[in-house]
Fold:
Amino acid sequence: MKEYKFSPYKNFVKYPVEMMISRSIDFYGRLKRRRTVRDYSDTKIPIQIIENCIKAAATAPNGANKQPWHFVVVSSPEIKKKIREEAEKCEAEFYNNKAPQTWLNDLEPLGTNIEKPFIEKAPYLIVVFEKKYDLDENENQLKNYYTKESVGIAAGILITALHYSGLATLTYTPSPMNFFNEVLNRPKNERAFLCIVTGLPADNAEVPDIEKKPLEEIIQIL
Structure:
């Protein structure tokens, strides 16, 4: 069993209460400007920005420090084209056969459809994989814990980091997503959790006029 050494937590920064309040307001203001974008510019983005944001995502809390995630960054036009082809097959099945009418009715005002040109237009796709278990050198399974929760938190940090860095994002989850394993040559112990499309928005990009629920509807203080 692996043993960890413990050391004093010296990296925590203590702020005066007034600064804590100010920082929380500023952070909310920054995140409030984040929107899901479906129209992208093909402007190239330095890979260092993506790498730094993934490093931030990998600081996420996770079950037993197993870090059950893997991030595949796709910039290859050929691979993006293949992903789009497979994704649109899934979308056609969803829209034409799987989705109940109530779901389609909810999606209609948002303008989504089978076609996903953003997959090829955006400079990067980041496919986040959930590792249900790891494998040792003898291919024996090593259990991971709270994998969905851990990967979900990491994905949230990644989206936030990309936004903070000045990039737009789209969380994309075609169903099913098992084609990602084949296209990206990922092993059987990994499962695609989320595809994050990222880059600069197109000059003519538009987003729907929607509102978030007010605080009093989403909070209870006891």
